[in-house]
Amino acid sequence: MNAPVAGGAEQVFARFLELERQTRAARNTEQLAYSLTNDGQALFGFRHAALLIAGKVRAITGVSAVEPNAPFVAFVEQAVAQLFKLDLVKQARVVPATALSGPTQADWQSLSAAQVFWLPLIDRQGQVFGGLWLARDVPWNPSEQVLLSQLGDTFSHAWLALQPRQPWRLRWTRKRQVALVAVLLLGLLIPVRQSVLAPAEVVPLGGQVVAAPLDGVIAEFLVKPNQSVKTGDLLLRFEGTTLKAQADVADRALGVAEAELKANAQRAFADAESSSKIDLLAARVEQKRAERDYARELLKRSEVRAERDGIAVFADAERWTGKPVQTGERLMEIADPSQAELRIELAVGDAIALEPGAQVALFLDSDPLQRHLAKLERSAYEAQPTAGGQLAYRLDASFDAAPPRIGLRGTAKVFGDRAPLALYLLRKPLAGLRQSVGL
What we know:
The protein is 38% helix and 28% strand.
């Protein structure tokens, strides 16, 4: 403090009040940090001041931006941390050099002034959340210490007003931190049910597959997706021009063969050679008759009809119209709308151990808030490529209640056995580490 002069007490008091006013006039924590480390220099004559919040330096006298790795910053943070361990930060006091470790005292001599005063910032619960490291070359007299203690309350009130939520790090002792880590580690051992998410679709159960009865081109589809059909209803029609021509040619060839057989039969009484050809011509007639019957059967198959009641399950008629298909190629499925199951495509990377009867929850894309419960019935042993080009295991599940509409898609959550929480959280990272490192 300046040497006493006439009116010195009044000047000190005026500067003290001005310092409190400047503190309360700060609009944000940045302005307040600058005021705390610079505005009191004229009143207390310190060489430098460092503001620490939650153990980290936030502002330094005469420095616009704090460099976290600067030697002085590291020294102040280390010194305050040691004072915190010794429980010497709760009260405003002159910092004794002997309380610090040897290396810290050496850094003190080279980086800071000889006389240091610690001014704590205390919250409403009486816990220290920060403080000021004030350093100068001359000792701190009792009157200055009283003024600084009073300012400490003002500084704390101003900081809490601008930042109501205080940092939590300084409120946790090392023992509490160790206890918290121990609780978290024990929590990782809590058994939880494993579960995976996979795309799923509601498919027919026990439906009748309608396959192409012949090689040909589909002329038209007479039903629409999910349309109800009855037994005998016409589903689709193949292009029949070629088939009709083949049937006509086969019919005419049969007529020629029958006429030739009849003519040779009439000549057989007088011509021995014609008599010898009768058996061959009769066999040819049977061959042509079989060819005609086959051509008529193909022509009959060009119209595909339903063999049971149900709904027609297929994607799009336009995708098939005009497209050549081969015999046995799947065209659609006739299914009972009340009989459906859930088909799940579980990616290889998400596979977990699953047993028949495992619980499954389906969330439809069209109704994500409603859950449909099911039970796992079958799971494939071999992964197959999906439409998206990924390898996945096929899982089949039966619904516990009335199934949703056939064709709906969504996301299925499949539940497995219980496992520690750590395995549940780290299963995929550990699998990736094992694949990349081989451990």
